[in-house]
Amino acid sequence: MAEFRLPALNRVFIAGNLTRDPELRYTASGVPVANFRIASNRWYRSPDGERREDVCYVNIVAWQRLAELVGERLRKGSAVLIEGEMQSRQWETEGGARRTVVEIRAFRVQFLNRMDESRTDQSHGSEGLDEEESIVQVDDLVDDLPF
Amino acid sequence: MADLRLPSLNFVQLTGRLTRDPEMRYTPSGVAVATFGIAVNRYYKDSSGESREETSFFTIVAWQKLAERVAELAHKGSSVLVEGRLHSRTWESSDGQRHSVIEIHAQRLQMLSKAEGDREYAPPPPEREAFDEPVDDEMPF
Fold it and tell me: Of A45, A67, A63, A62, which Cα lies nearest the Cα of A54?
């Protein structure tokens, strides 16, 4: 007889750079949703002592206020720290094949770039923001929409 | 101004149930690799306040000692806590299309299901129930 229920644990922390500009859309009911892809690098030593690099590419989905800020502040190359949950979605190709997409639903994004001097547009990067403002999070996970 | 590098940060923690028995393979150099799928449930309230459940499916890859232990102890339906790293790879299907796949490479696994009556299992003392995968990677410098 089970004494405990399985704890519902799902948390991911990942840092990386955007591989392209984020896409900001609005659902039929007007909810903002942003999608972007990041590359997260890892360096390690192979058994023969050589330094190797391994890159993980993953899609990030952000909702509501977080999505809007992502759309405003992030561009290809931006550095971010993402905190969120893993989710998978299934879809069908035109040929009827089933595919699964694994992605991260972000509830916290920290914009890591300080001012990018090559840009004249000051809305990029987080120069001028204090530490607290460079972190954006969704406080109320209860309102999270499924898709 | 602080001169920092972007941290190499990639950490996942999940609990779920195996959707199939672990599959054990060996690489050409003899390294044990076990692969299994897990179903992870998410409970939330939708915009009208109704309780909902949503299931996501992930592939977990375990290596070496961790692979051997999970193949031995876990089976379809087992509950597990996985800690590890996200890993993406691309593969090409027979029609030449490139596909991207994300898997979780386990660094630590905790078997949360107690054994069924018909399996021989001597419960180890709690501090040994989580087996740690030796972390081979170093800080870059």
Answer: A45
Per-residue pLDDT of chain B (141 residues; tens, 9 = 90+): 567 888 899 999 999 999 999 999 999 999 999 999 999 999 988 878 899 999 999 999 999 999 999 999 999 999 999 999 999 999 888 888 888 899 999 999 999 987 653 333 444 444 444 444 544 444 444
Give the CATH number for residue A39: 2.40.50.140
**How many residue contacts between A and B have a Cβ separation below 8 Å?**
113
CATH 3.40.50.620 is right for the domain spanning B12-114: no
Q: What gap in Å lies between CA A7 and CA A3, rounded to an integer?
A: 12
What's the domain count of chain A?
1
Identify the domain containing residue A93 by its residue range: 12-117
**Phi, psi values for residue A67, rounded to 5°:** -60, -45
- The residue ranges of every structural domain in chain B are 12-114
How near does any CA of chain B get to the CA of A83, in Å?
10
Q: Is the dihedral of CA A66, A56, A87, B94 positive or negative?
A: positive
User: How many angstroms separate the CA atoms of A107 and A70, rounded?
Assistant: 12
Whether residue B122 lies within 8 A of chain A, CB to CB, comes out as no
Classify residue A47: in a domain, yes or no: yes
Q: Is the ipTM of this complex over 0.95?
A: no
Closest CA to A81 of A139, A126, A141, A144: A126
